[in-house]
Amino acid sequence: MRRIPLAAPTTPLAAVLVALLLTGSGPAPRSAPPTSPAPTGARAGNPPLATAALDRLLADPRLAGAAVSALVTDAATGEVRYQHSPDALLLPASTLKTVTAAAALDLLGPDHRFSTTVLATGPRTGAALAGDLVLRGGGDPSLLPADLETLAGQVAATGIREVSGSVLADASRYDDVPLGAGWAWDDQGAYYSPEISALTLTTDGDDDVGSVRLTLTPAEAPGHPATVRLTPAEAPVRISGRVDTGAPGGELTAEADRHPGGNEIVLSGSLPTDAGPTEEWVAVADPAQLTATVFAAALARHGVTVRGGVRQGQAPTGAAVLATHDSEPLTALLPPFLKLSNNGIAEHLVKEIGRVRSGSGSWAAGLDRLREFERRAGLAVTTARQVDGSGLSRQDLMTTQGLVSLLQFARSQPWFTAWYDALPVAGDPRRMVGGTLSNRLRDTAAQGRVHAKTGSMTGVEALAGYLDQADGHPLAFAVLFNNFTGQSPRSALDAFVVQLAGGTPARQAAPSTLEPNALEPNTPERPRGGHDWEATCTATQAC
Length: 543
What we know:
alpha/beta; Beta-lactamase; 3 domains; five-stranded antiparallel β-sheet; globular; EC 3.4.16.4; hydrolase; EC 3.4.21.-; signal
């Protein structure tokens, strides 16, 4: 599953925004649904919001027949500045990640770390271990092959050179349910829908848990197969099919997919000769087996021979700890989680909350603790339903009132700064600052003044976060669009935010696009997208 590379804007928003914000011209909009009267008692010196203009934006023809909810409050006082069906239960998509991140900071603590350990199960005689080496997963969603290499070096440093038993993959910290409720069966090979395991591996700093990376390089001449490099090279997968090399300037159609029920990765499509290397990320079946296999290869490189291969099981009581790797603290995991909308991190946090707070590393236990947090945070002002941590499931339901209640609650918490800084920043081209908002709201009044979490699925557009008004006073807002068909109404959502920011026509000539919201490349060889590239979302992907 390829992440979409940075694309040049193809549909300027200037005309769209000006028309929507100022005239409401274009196709005749449907009648605006009733909204509450404009609230009174606004702060002195702060003019009321242009509610009529906001109403027109929510009456965009693309939203005809759709479900729409919006709520805007003064973030400092909670005063309602604008509302439209704030109690409607709608799919939140990845705006739900704001709830999961806040709960994790509250229930686990900003300094929480995930520990991966290596243990020995039998007695030693000199350099020989008569037993197993256990690789025990601690739920780390950021574990890299380099970390396994370090652990292998630590084992070798103890003097062990031969193991009569196996490398035992211990994923018992979490339960054995790999996929969330309502996740699509045909997305199992997609990097954004990984199997969740307490022992898992990522290939890079984006923390795409349980996935491998394929680098495809076109041949020098058309008609020949592209070369394939697998990372990590020892991954227990089988690659079939091929990617052909096409003529220069041709369409890039290369794909890699894994069908359910095994670890066969099927290649198809073509790469133009002038395309350069492209990369595909594929989620694997059984991440614990993947991780232990890569660890066994690292042991061999450090001179440790394991006679019994790799198998799975749980470390016995009394096994001796040989080596430990601790992740960075939770606060350091928040940027890839929220800015890149990483689904795997979300689900690890839910299961970790269950394990730490209830002794059970399951979705059920973790979500029970999340619901308690939500009640304490004031999110339970209306009925809601949360079945995962990422918003990937179409069984999740949330209200804009609940999301805004969280935004207001978070401002008073000691972890607020870390949480706020991890939200995407509108129009900032730096990948780990702008995140999924890097290519949105540029050159508008909202640029740099909006910290908000995006959300997108087929038929869903959402945004929830903070907007600093011109005088620096913050608004808290959430907007959910559900059940639309046809062209995406994202430009209407962005125009809504620009209107909140007090934008003028001159500042609305944004180079934003309705095309994929990919981010700047990490390197010339690796066009990077991430997880919230809304136009790439399938019918069930939450971004």
